[in-house]
Amino acid sequence: MQDVRVTDWNQLNRELFENTWNEAIRRFRSNFVYRGMGDASADLRTGLMKLGGNIREVEFHILRNFKKYARQDAVHGDSQWNWLALAQHHGVPTRLLDWSYSPYVALHFATVGLGEYDRDGIIWCVDYVAVHKLLPRSLREVLSEERSNAFTVEMLDHAAGSLVALEKLSKEDFAVFLEPPSLDQRIVNQFSIFAMMSSPLARFDEWLLKEHGDLLRRIIIPAELKWEVRDKLDQANITERVLLPGLDGLARWLQRHYTPRI
Predict the structure, then answer these.
(1) Domain boundaries, the chain
(2) pTM score, two decimals?
């Protein structure tokens, strides 16, 4: 694992796009996905893990009840992966973690919380293409057949129709990156992708750090740099107004944008 503590905006941008050049096609095509967090000391516990208790049993009941009480036309078809993505999207505690293909979207989430400006922020950068080379054979074959680097709901459904089926594919823990369906403009604008461990008990960061640290880079954003980063993202229109379309996103942007610097 490589940790880089940046000192200014220019270095931050260089690090965000590090190792994204593809010589074979002579284009910048990143194999990384990004997750921004306002507190560099925070780990990657899922919402489900934060609930505590019997995680496996709790997950079953949460998804069963979400599906029961949600509108039956809330998702297309009855795929468990569709329901899981929808639940995560609306804030239900699940085993999924939010990531983005966009380093600037991640940077937004690392600097959007003004209450965290007294501490360093962080961008987690993971080579998801390399992570998928560690998948069970049946899942790798699906990606190969589709000539894809990440799973869609339909692709994952083809290989494993449920969380239980997914876990049974291997005795060893593994990670899957799943592109959510375009449920609304928010998912589209955030260039979203979810990370998911095969077991609800496995923590993604612990799995990476223990076994596959070479697939991970972390960029530390010093607390004193956050205001500059935030102002430049606002000028570039990377804001709640764009990433959270609608009146709620507009309201969040206005409140933060007009909060005076202390």
Answers:
(1) 2-257
(2) 0.94
